[in-house]
Amino acid sequence: MNTHPGLIGKKLGNTQIFESDGNVTRVTVVEVGPCTVIGKRTVEKDGYSALVLGFGEKREKHVNKPTAGQFAKINQKVAKVLREFRLPAELVAKHEIGAVLKPSEIFEAGQFVDVCGQTRGRGFTGVMKRWNFRGSATATHGTHEYQRHGGAIGTNMTPGRTLPNLKMPGQYGNERVTIQNLKIARVMDEQGVLLIEGAVPGPKGGIVTVRGAVKKKNGGRKSAA
What we know:
mainly beta, four-stranded antiparallel beta sheet, 5 helices, 34% strand, globular
């Protein structure tokens, strides 16, 4: 489980930046601010430690009374998106409810991060688009209407049924995907923006979570946080 600090963000799109040596770096722009601490989970009360972060602001007419009451109790505006981040107890204790986290408090330039988001939905697709099948072996010798088919899906008398987990047509996309070990090109506190090298899952305007790389030492930072 990834227990490195992170933030909620919104994918704004892609662009490029010029480095000091003249090289061009392709980056994805992710707006990660402001993220507010909405709640805490402690080992004594909940059995684990975590921070509950809120991102954005929900319109008042879209908020029911119980939710509005919960946020009124902590004197915070109703967040549009809530995410829970599992963290060590000592990191949770550092932050108070209502604190606004800056990108530079969590990330640094050159750090490796894991970005998780919901991919773009592509609807019901065939096996060639969904699973990269190459299609029929031949379009001659009497083959009709089978150029884009998946081939046989069943067996003979035993077991006499279609086996589960076969690659078949179906819904493609609209699933939770994590891209690991992406490098942060720049951290821009004033704009509340991260520039991340490479592609980030989801469409423009999609909500993502960015946190330190689980497969890198110190969460991908150059030095211990």
